[in-house]
Write a structure and sequence with these properties.
heterodimer, A: about 290 residues, alpha+beta, five-stranded mixed sheet, B: about 625 residues, Cytochrome C Oxidase, Chain A, 2 domains, about 60% helix
Chain lengths: ~290, ~625
């Protein structure tokens, strides 16, 4: 019922703070340039569109900003458990420190400033500098490019388990492959015919849920030629992992010739398609697996 | 102290199986299933929308409902209300005395319920872990090889749902029920019968969830998103019913613990003397009582959509999938903190004991927990950043989500201050508690990427998210759970756990946990979506490495089981009353803990973390109190 005999040990004197700050400064000074210069250019999703570029910048900046924080906490923990480890069998109590109000206040203020700054910067990127950062904004987007009427509108239709694309500017042609012109503003209108999918064009930096009955808009501005992967990022049933395609960003001339060949090839099929709409309401069906 | 042991004639062993216990409950539950399924079949006659499908959801749901009623009746949950209705004398306390049979029936002793939870939830936890091993076997190859795609999907959904269902009560179930009354100086919980009910809803929930295998599996993962869940085969009914039972159990647990902590603290146990673990339990209980009912409502509407031809979530007939997504995450995000907060409580409870110092910044820790509790109701739409919700709201949810890292940061500051100039001993519970901070640091900070919308567009729905929440739930909650197991099991069982096996368990689990989940951040960055059984061939080396680590991580659990069996069954070295020299009130009672916990209600004299404070009085006066003379 009684607590074993304990005694208060003497406080130790080495300059722990100085040592920890030096270790932290050295490690951070090594880590930050490595992250920005070496890791940064490999962070996703690349620079194929302006929006993808803003995401890479966000990923790089946050990794670089969080590295010194991780290092500081880890250095403190590792230093403490090494320096203050007790190996003796007898249980000795430490000094009864209960808190330090200036330090607690400083910690609260410091973390608050970082967090509010991150949120402000994220909102600026989202609304002002990159028109929604490539994310789906729903039917009434708030972050819209200034000359929206010049956008190339591409409707993305998800269904179990494939993606198709309709181009209202080209007689509503529907294709099963996606090519986009370079240096052009693109406006994706993502919708679904059955369950919720998510249109993820990785290198384009686009992710927008395909929800039945909803027209989910996402903007990008293409900057670079190349291939991009298209996947489904929301579980949609049995072959979710197989909703994979490769698209291309090509020169505007190559895009024109591709779309006109698609129009020719798909012309006989066009009359079987429902008229172009922002959404499609299929009959409800159950037990599709 | 009163003893309840009644004198009874010696009966043959098989007679012990007859009566209100788990075996009767299983038999009545199975009988109820057939009765309910038959009634459901009669209801379906003449209803086109049920006949048109090959599986009768009404029959299956009625089967589960009647099975549940049979199960609870078999355990004796209806004896008390029926006796009261008939005007017969009823016992408020059920089966509190007696031997091992107490553990297999309705028992209102909070200590028995704690042990029941420990083993009950533990069994389902290991089934969920086995599912993870089977999934990692499939992911050794980039195409389906070990399991067909549909089976992989079911395994994945069972793993996710089982783990979320069981880990929600992973700490509050065993340790909350067992130790909160001891720590606040009470003899029981506020509602002992409800306490027993919260546990006895867990086994049927687990069994019903597993029955999904027989009805076509679960295609939706643990989130059960609506249009997919509505069209899924009847395994979805098992998911819905089982998750509703867990929702009910969580709500009741929350209300019970909240009432207990608010009203039954011993004299002298002021709010600033309350053990920090109890603060963690209190915040978690608030979340449980307020968030879990929303889950029940959301699932009830999904159930109606499936079985009663309503269309709450069906766009084509006027409903909206967003309704489900919002309701689900309104529960789902507080749920994440239902998993995290008890872990905060455990590690901050353990750190002062093994650093031999007072908890540094006690009030900040309380503020941190209450801050997380408050903010967690305002962040749920960060799961829906790219869903097409009102895009003007995204900056708000980005801000609230990032704000929640401020109170979480308090917990780290408390830990750092407590370790500073401590006399730190590396016992097994301390190792797990320290590992918690390493894992939660990575888990928490990776969450900042997901809270920032531009960055979330890259990582949403990818393996990055999967790695993030495994770092917080497994690296956080499960490590805290094992810290609590090694810390408190000597008090709960009265025997010492083997320390060498414990350390092997810790190092294997810590190293291979990190080797398993850290590479998955990279998999997410390299565009591997979650919940797929096929992936880019270029990621095979990475996935093989992860699978190999996961298998070792899984085997570390076998070492824990071996330790448990060896220590509890074979070695049986009796534990000291207070092996860690802790000041916690729960350590001041004898081992095994007497039925009534305390001979008399203790009077608390000081806080539980007064290590190194000269002249600190003992935590509580347990024996008879000398009545002070008048005027003193």
């Amino acid at each position: 019922m009684t607590i074993p005999h304990t005694e208060v040990g003497p406080a130790r004197v080495p300059r722990h703070w100085l040592r920890m700050v030096v270790i932290w400064a050295v490690l951070s000074a090594v880590a930050i340039p490595l992250i920005v210069l070496v890791l940064g250019p490999h962070l996703p999703p690349g620079r194929m569109t302006s929006e993808a570029g803003s995401q890479r910048d966000a990923n790089t900046l946050m990794t670089a900003l969080l590295a010194p924080i991780v290092v500081s906490v880890l250095v403190f923990f590792l230093y403490s458990i090494v320096a203050f480890r007790e190996r003796g069998a007898a249980i000795v109590d430490g000094p009864p420190l209960r808190g330090h109000v200036p330090m607690q206040t400083a910690w609260v203020l410091f973390t608050s400033v970082i967090v509010v700054a991150l949120a402000a910067w994220g909102s600026y990127t989202l609304i002002v500098s990159s028109h929604g950062a490539g994310g789906g904004q729903g039917p009434d987007p708030v972050a819209v490019p200034s000359h929206r009427s010049q956008d190339l509108v591409v409707q993305v239709i998800g269904q179990q388990w494939n993606w198709t694309y309709r181009f209202p500017a080209y007689q509503d042609v529907e294709t099963d492959h996606l090519e986009l012109p370079n240096h052009s503003p693109i406006e994706f209108h993502v919708t679904s015919l059955d369950v919720t999918h998510s249109f993820w064009a990785y290198q384009l930096g686009v992710k927008a849920d395909a929800v039945p009955g909803v027209d989910n808009v996402a903007f990008v501005h293409t900057r670079d030629d190349g291939n991009f992967n298209i996947r489904c990022a929301e579980l949609c049933g049995l072959w979710h992992g197989h909703m994979f395609q490769t698209g291309n960003v090509v020169t505007p001339v190559a895009f024109k010739s591709w779309i006109s060949s698609e129009q020719k090839a798909e012309a006989p099929n066009l009359r079987y398609l429902p008229p172009f709409g922002r959404t499609y309401f299929p009959a409800p069906f159950r037990r599709a697996g | 102290m009163t003893t309840y042991a009644a004198e009874r004639p010696l009966l043959p062993a098989w007679r012990g199986l007859i009566g209100f216990n788990m075996f009767t409950a299983l038999a009545l539950g199975a009988g109820g299933w057939f009765l309910g399924a038959w009634i459901g079949g009669q209801i379906a006659v003449g209803n086109d929308y049920l006949i048109a499908t090959d599986q009768n959801d009404v029959g299956i749901l009625m089967g589960y409902l009647f099975g549940l009623i049979g199960w609870l009746g078999g355990l004796g949950f209806f004896n008390y209300p029926v006796s009261r209705l008939l005007g017969r004398p009823a016992t408020v306390r059920e089966k509190e005395s007696g031997g091992a049979a107490r553990y297999f029936t309705l028992c209102t002793d909070h200590k028995v319920v704690g042990i029941q939870y420990f083993f009950g939830v533990g069994i389902f936890f290991f089934i969920g872990g086995l599912n993870a091993m089977l999934m990692r076997t499939e992911l050794l190859r980039p195409v389906e090889r070990a399991w067909p795609a549909g089976q992989y999907l079911s395994l994945m959904s069972l793993h996710g749902t089982m783990m979320i269902m069981m880990t929600s009560a992973f700490i509050l179930g065993p340790f909350g029920n067992y130790f909160v009354p001891l720590m606040i100086g009470a003899r029981r919980m506020a509602f002992p019968r409800i306490e027993a009910l919260t546990f006895w809803l867990v086994p049927p929930a687990g069994l019903i969830l597993l029955s999904a295998i027989a009805f076509g599996g679960i295609p939706t993962g643990w989130t059960g998103y609506a249009p997919l869940g509505t069209e899924g085969r009847s395994g979805m009914d098992a998911y819905i019913f089982a998750f509703m039972l867990i929702g009910l159990s969580l709500t009741l647990t929350g209300i019970n613990l909240l009432t207990t902590i608010l009203t039954m603290r011993a004299p002298g146990l002021t709010w600033t003397r309350l053990p920090i673990f109890v603060w963690g339990v209190l915040s978690t209980s608030i979340l449980m009582a307020l968030a879990a009912p929303v889950l029940i409502a959301a699932l009830l509407m999904e159930l109606m959509d499936r079985a009663a031809n309503t269309s709450f979530y069906l766009t084509s007939s006027g409903g909206s999938p967003y309704l489900y997504e919002n309701l689900f995450w309104f529960f789902g995000h507080p749920e994440v903190y239902i998993l995290a907060l008890p872990g905060f409580g455990i590690v901050l409870e353990i750190l002062p004991v093994f650093a031999r110092k007072p908890l540094w910044g006690y009030k900040l820790a309380v503020a941190g927990m209450l801050g997380v509790t408050f903010l967690s109701f305002m962040v749920w739409q960060h799961h829906l950043f790219v869903s097409g919700m009102n895009s003007g709201l995204r900056p708000f949810y980005m801000l609230t989500t990032e704000l929640i890292s401020i109170p979480t940061g308090f917990i780290f500051l408390n830990a750092m201050g407590t370790l500073w100039h401590g006399r730190i001993r590396f016992t097994v519970p301390m190792l797990f508690a320290l590992a918690f901070f390493f894992n939660f640091l990575i888990g928490g900070l990776s969450g900042i990427f997901l809270s920032d919308v531009p960055s979330d567009v890259t990582t949403h729905g990818s393996y990055f998210v999967m790695a993030h929440f495994h770092y917080t739930i497994m690296g956080g909650l499960v490590f805290a759970f094992f810290a609590a197991v090694y810390y408190w099991l000597p008090k709960m069982t009265g025997v010492v756990l083997n320390e060498r096996l414990g350390k092997i368990h810790f190092w294997l689990m810590f190293v291979f946990f990190n080797l398993t989940f850290f590479p998955l951040f990279a998999a997410g960055f390299l565009d591997m979506p979650r919940r797929v059984s096929t992936y880019a061939p270029s990621l095979q080396t990475l996935n093989d490495f992860v699978s190999a680590s996961a298998f070792v991580l899984g085997s570390s659990m076998l070492i824990f089981i071996a330790n448990l069996i060896y220590s509890l069954v074979f070695a049986r070295i009796p534990a000291a009353e207070n092996p860690w020299a802790s000041r916690g009130l729960e350590w001041q009672v004898p081992t095994p803990v007497p039925l009534e916990n305390f001979e008399r209600i203790p009077i608390v004299n000081s806080g539980p973390y007064e290590y190194g404070v000269e002249g600190a009085p003992p935590t509580a006066t347990l024996g008879p109190v000398a009545v002070p003379a008048a005027g003193s």
